[in-house]
Amino acid sequence: MPKKAPKEIPAALNRAIDFYRLLNEVPLGVLILDRRRRVLFCNHALEAIVGITAATAQGLACRHVMRSRACLTECPAAQGDLSENVCFETDLINRDRKRIPIRCTLAPIFDAQEHPAGYVETVEDLRPLKEHGAKVNQAYGFGNVVGQSRQMEKLFRIVPVIAQSDASVLITGETGTGKDMLAETLHQESERAKGPFVKINCGALPETLLESELFGHAKGAFTGATENKQGRFHLAHNGTLYLTEIGDLPLPLQVKLLTFLDDKIVYPLGATKGFAADARVVAATHRDLERMVREGRFRQDLFFRLNVLRLHIPPLREREGDVRLLLDHYLNFFTRKTHRSVTGFAPKALSILLDYDYPGNVRELRNIIEYAVNVCREGKILPRHLPAYLSEERESIRPSSAAPQVVIPPPAEVAVEAPSGSGEGSWPMAERRIILEALVKAKGNRQNAARQLGWARSTLWRKMKHYGMDQS
Amino acid sequence: MIRKVLIPLSEEEVAPRFDLAAEVLLVELEADGRILQEKVLILPEPSAERLCHMVMTERAHTVICGGIDGEVFDYLTWKGITVIDDVIGLASAVLRRHAAGGLKSGEIVTTDNSFRPS
User: Fold this and answer.
1) A198 bridge partner residues
2) A93/B86 Cβ within 8 A
3) Which of A31, A172, A192, A242 has its CA at 20 to 30 Å from residue A303's CA atom?
C-alpha cells in the first residue's frame, strides 16, 4: 500500500503546479516516456546533454534521442514492463558528436490503478566525475588508497576488474592497512556506485542485536520490537553491503549470511515473508580465516562463499618505497588541513621514520605525521617532533614473523597496564607515554605540557582523562 | 556518375549509432537518383573501426548515419567522404530522400506527417 503523504504537503500544493516547469528546474536530465518508450517530455538539463530540443524529441523513440549504448544493446525495458527502477552506467553520443559517459536510472510510472503507464529516466552527466577520478587515480594510487610499490600496483590493476564484477569479495590485511578504504573504492568503481554503501562492523554488536541490525525484524518479533525494522541488507538494496570484521561474526549468523549469499533473500527476524535484496557483499577481516576454519570457529562453506574474489592488502613493512610516498602524502595533507608551514623532514627524522616497522600500518603512519605536524608547526620535522617511542626501544616493538597480526589494546586496558617502558607497540600506549614525558618536562604544569605537545589545554585534559591519568 | 552510399542499419532504420551498428546497407545510385544495386552486409560485431575500413574498401562516397563520434566523423571527412549524420528514419525512406537530393544532417525523415520511428 502506498504511504499517505504528510498533511503539510497537500496543503502546500493545494494549487495546480506546472509539472514540466518543475522538471525543468531539476539539474539532472529527465526524460518521460510512454509505455512504448516514445518521448513525451525532456527537461532543459537533458536538452543540454543530448543536444536536442524537447520539441524535436517529442514522439521520437527513446533510442534516437538518447543514443546510449545501453539503449541499443541491453535496454532494461525491452523485455517488458519494469517492476522497479534500474540504474546503469553507459555512454551516449550527443549532437556535437561528443561521447558522454552517463549514469541512467530508469523507473516505471504507474497510473492511479497501479497499471504501468510509462517510464521516467534520469540522466546524470559523469564527465566531471570521471575527470576528477582520473586525476585522483593518477596520483600514485586508486581512489583514496595511496601506493606505488610493486605489491600495491598489482592490487590497483586488479581492483577495477573486481569492481566491475558482482561477486562477493573478501578483503584481508592487517589492521590499519586500508581495508575500509578499499571496500569503498570497490563500491565507487562498480556499477552499484549510485546505490548505497552500507557498512556494518560484525564485531561491534552483541549477537542478538547484530541479527536484527543485519536482517531487520518484524513487529512483535521480540519484546520491544514495536515496529517493523529494515535490516542493513535491505538498506543496501541496489548497492553494496560491507561487513567489516567478518571473522567476529557469531556462528549462528554465519549460517544466516550463507543462506543470503545463496538465495539473495533476507528474512527479517520473526517475519514469514522474505525480501529479495540485490546487494553485493564485501567482507573484510584482519583475522586468519583459514586458521579459524581449521579451529571450527568459522564456517568453511561461508569462507568458500566469501572467498570468491580475494584482495589482500600487504602490510606497510612489505611495501617497498611506499613509506616515503605516504610520509610525503600525509605531510601535505595535514599541513594543508592545519594551515601549518611545515616544509619537510630533517634527514635524521626521515631516517627514523623510514627505519620504523609500522606495526599499525598506514593508520599508525598517518597518526605519527598528524602528531609531528601538530608539534612542529613550521620548518622541517626534527626527531624531537616525532613521538618518542619511535626512537626508543624500536627493536622490542617489531612483530615476530610468526605472529604478524598486531592487536592494539583498547585505551581502557592501556590505562590499567601503564607499563611506561614496556614498549608494547601501540599508538594509545605511545601517546600516553608522550603525555607523561611532556608533563615531567613541564614539571607537572599542564598548560606548559599542552604547549609542548602543540595541543590545546582542553585536548590534553581530555586525553589524560581518556587514559585515566587525571586522578592526581 | 555512380555514387555509393553506405547506411549503418538497426533493423529497418538508420542505426542510432555508427559505432554500434552490426549491419550496413550499401547502395549504388545513378546520377539521376535511380538505385542500381543494393546489398546488406553483416559485420561480425559492431565496431567503428571495421565500419570505417568497410567504407574505404567499398569506396563509398557518402555515409548516412545517426550519432557518430567526432573522431570518426573527422577521419571520414578527411578521407573525402561526405557524412550526413544525426539522421532518423527508415533506411528506405532516408535513401529515397537522399536520392531525391537535399538530405541534411539532423533530418528526421518521416513517410507522412504523423510517422515517428517505432
Assistant:
1) A241
2) no
3) A192
With CB atoms and an 8 Å threshold, state whether B66 touches A99.
no
**Which of B16, B20, B68 lies nearest to residue A64, judging by beta carbons?**
B16
> Do A239 and A309 share a structural domain?
yes
Residues A53 and A104 in one domain: yes
Looking up residue A168, the CATH number of its domain turns out to be: 3.40.50.300
Q: What angle do CA A58, A60, A64 make, to 5 degrees?
A: 125
Query: Is there a single domain that holds both residue A196 and residue A293?
Result: yes
Q: What are the tens digits of pLDDT across the range A368-421?
A: 999 999 888 778 899 888 988 887 745 444 444 333 333 333 333 333 333 333
Q: Is A53 in CB contact (< 8 Å) with chain B?
A: no
User: Per-block average pLDDT, block size 10, for chain A (472 residues)?
Assistant: 56 74 88 91 91 90 92 82 81 92 90 88 85 56 80 87 89 91 89 86 80 84 79 87 90 87 86 85 91 90 89 90 89 84 88 89 92 84 88 52 37 33 59 85 84 81 81 54
Instruction: Look at A93 and B69 and tell me if their CB atoms are within 8 Å.
Output: yes
Strand partners, B10: B13
Please answer yes or no on whether B118 and A36 come within 8 Å at the CB atom: yes
Q: How many domains does chain A fold into?
A: 4
Please tell me if residue A38 touches chain B, with a CB cutoff of 8 Å: yes
Residue-range definition of the domain harbouring residue A385: 318-400
CATH number for position A430: 1.10.10
Note whether A174 and A293 are same-domain residues: yes
The three state secondary structure string of A354-398 is HHCCCCCHHHHHHHHHHHHHHHHCEEEECHHHCCHHHCCCCHHHC
By C-alpha distance, which of A321, A405, A289, A310 is closest to A151? A321
For residues A330 and A381, membership in a common domain is answered with yes
Residue A212 lies in a domain: yes
CB under 8 Å to B90, separation ≥6 — which residues? B12, B13, B14, B109, B111, B117
Q: Chain A contacts of B22, Cβ < 8 Å?
A: none
A35 touching chain B per CB within 8 A: no
Q: Are A329 and A468 part of one and the same domain?
A: no
Here the cell at position A373 is: 605536524
Asked whether residue A79 is domain-assigned, the answer is yes
Q: Which residue among A290, A313, A336 closes a domain?
A: A313
Gap between the Cα atoms of A324 and A394, Å rounded: 19
Give pLDDT, residue A421.
Answer: 38
Which candidate in A36, A37, A64 is best for mutational testing of the B interface (most B CBs within 10 A)? A64
The answer to whether the Cβ–Cβ distance between B16 and A95 falls below 8 Å is no
Looking at per-residue pLDDT, the higher value among B22 and A76 belongs to B22
Select from A313, A337, A362 the last residue of a domain.
A313
List the single range of A92-101, A125-134, B9-18, B22-31 with lowest mean pLDDT.
A125-134
Nearest Cα residue in chain B from A37: B118
ipTM: 0.91
- Binned at pLDDT 50, 70 and 90, residue B79 comes out as very high
> In A90-228, which ranges are continuous DSSP H helix?
127-138, 150-164, 179-189, 207-215
Q: Are residues A296 and A386 in the same domain?
A: no
Contacts A38 to B, Cβ<8 Å: 116
